[in-house]
Specification:
extended; three-stranded antiparallel β-sheet; alpha+beta
Length: 196
């Protein structure tokens, strides 16, 4: 087998390349505005004041060229893509708001969001607060119908209104042995309580 020897020396790993991607450069302003239009109006634009669908386009915004302006032919109101939304009237561009909303959905802290978006943490705090409040205001009310299932709920009730019930001693049959509470630890059986 001759003189073929393989050297098993440990080689130095290549230096770790730090991948630093600025998220705000990955999102296009036009796509952001198109997304807002689709979510807000679906297929047809309606007036922000009177909800009429008789609307004409009135050019673009000078500072944000992807932001479309409109005029209602019914009430003559002027509005744009962001009128009466939580994104209106702020200095941050729409893509920063959408990125902030996306990062909130990933459950990142305000400090992490500020670092990712390269914004001041106080600015991000204001943005996330406004987004949360806007979501809460638009949340539909829940109405239950049909068959509704729920698990049992145990509530420990004090003696208020019925002090005699507290004075009664619970019989041995109503006591449950409990693990983790020590030798003398006992839990009392409780009746499930349900109210609508």
């Amino acid at each position: 087998m001759g003189g073929n020897k393989v050297s098993l020396q440990k080689s130095q790993p290549p230096p770790q390349a730090m991948l630093n991607i600025n998220l705000s450069h990955l999102i296009d302003d036009a796509k952001c505005y198109e997304s807002v239009r689709q979510i807000r109006w679906g297929g047809s634009v309606c007036c922000a004041k009177c909800n009429s669908v008789k609307v004409i386009k009135r050019g673009k915004d000078e500072t944000q060229p992807e932001r479309q302006r409109y005029q209602c032919k019914t009430c003559n109101a002027h509005f744009d893509d962001l009128t009466d939304t939580i994104f209106a009237g702020h200095h941050q561009p729409l893509k920063m708001w959408l990125l902030c909303l996306y990062l909130m959905g990933l459950n990142l802290s305000n400090q992490q969001i500020a670092k990712e978006l390269e914004l001041d943490k106080d600015v991000v705090q204001d943005m996330t607060t406004q987004l949360r409040e806007g979501i809460e205001q638009r949340k539909p009310t829940v109405e239950l119908s049909g068959i509704v299932e729920c698990d049992e709920v145990y509530v420990t009730v004090g003696h208020k209104g019925n002090p005699e019930a507290v004075k009664k001693r619970v019989g041995r049959g109503d006591v449950i042995g409990s693990k983790g509470f020590g030798a003398g630890g006992r839990l009392r059986k409780k009746s499930p309580l349900f109210s609508v």
